[in-house]
Known about the structure:
InterPro entries: AP_endonuc_1, Endo/exonu/phosph_ase_sf, Endo/exonuclease/phosphatase. GO terms for molecular function: DNA-(apurinic or apyrimidinic site) endonuclease activity; double-stranded DNA 3'-5' DNA exonuclease activity; metal ion binding; phosphoric diester hydrolase activity. Belongs to the DNA repair enzymes AP/ExoA family. Its cofactor is Mg(2+); Mn(2+). It is a single chain. About 20% of the residues lie in helices and about 20% in strands. The chain has a 7-stranded mixed beta sheet with strand order 1-6-7-5-2-19-18. A 6-stranded mixed beta sheet has the order 8-9-10-13-17-15. The chain is built from 8 helices and 19 strands. The two termini are about 35 Å apart. The chain has a single domain, classed as 4-Layer Sandwich (Deoxyribonuclease I, Chain A). The chain is globular. Helix 4 (about 230-250) packs parallel to helix 5. By secondary structure, the protein is an alpha+beta fold.
Amino acid sequence: xxxxxxxxxxxxxxxxxxxxxxxxxxxxxxxxxxxxxxxxxxxxxxxxxxxxxxxxxxxxxxxxxxxxxxxxxxxxxxxxxxxxxxxxxxxxxxxxxxxxxxxxxxxxxxxxxxxxxxxxxxxxxxxxxxxxxxxxxxxxxxxxxxxxxxxxxxxxxxxxxxxxxxxxxxxxxxxxxxxxxxxxxxxxxxxxxxxxxxxxxxxxxxxxxxxxxxxxxxxxxxxxxxxxxxxxxxxxxxxxxxxxxxxxxxxxxxxxxxxxxxxxxxxxxxxxxxxxxxxxxxxxxxxxxxxxxxxxxxxxxxxxxxxxxxxxxxxxxxxxxxxxxxxxxxxxxxxxxxxxxxxxxxxxxxxxxxxxxxxxxxxxxxxxxxxxxxxxxxxxxxxxxxxxxx
Length: 390
């Protein structure tokens, strides 16, 4: 999430009432390390469908890491005690490979807010090295990283104007990528590095989303630099464009799974101790989000379509109060919001394609970020068995 306004700052305005495999240090840089930078494309839905009799679960994780830099250090693979016997355990440093191993080698790991400049191929290559086996004792599967990074000189400049801001990275297990992925793409209507789409042969679209954070700051025309509204306006446009493209794909027989940081808490239960409703535009943004993706709140109009999707965690966990944004500067659990979501096509829920979903809401899983990871298991008729040891 963008750090300036959402979730609420520590001192809130008046709001509505509350209702294990080991790895060794990363190898040195290799010029041949591949970098997969995904260029924006329009939605092309003419992809062949391949069926299978298997029903193994596809495991997808999503995490706003609030900057990739800490994950590119040499990993420490286990907890250990400091020399003093009474001292507390020292936590291991962040490591992408350790995360993948600890969570039993998921097929997909979506990262948001990686903060990599588009021109910084060195860091992109370092991410790729951080997710591959680097020791004979590491017998886990290999992975590939695919980036969608900012290409907007007026709205995604970052500190110093280098474009080191926003950005998403889709980390795909190599065996799954090679056997089931038909295409990985961005979208032509996003130049800020917020959308990456993984399309499978079975016509499942898995969306890595880092949604716009609404603020009163200006939004500029990406080509001319002229002010074209506020970041609130761009957030509403982002909702509309994303929902419309998902709807178009569903009409062509695709199923959608959207996972990531949507920069909005959908309902009162998703904010603690309160849900932010002031300034009023935040409530307007929330209402628009709930209509665009869940069909809740507005009267349907031909020019105002809704995806009519399903908030997977809320559907499966009922009224559980679990949160994904936990600012490090506050005591754990004192100010938090559920803004990282998995949204599934309604058909996937009705036909029981979605098996399970959860939130890894602990300080240890949050690590160096201010968000915790979320995950979902789905079945779409693909043979996505567990990885074999090398």
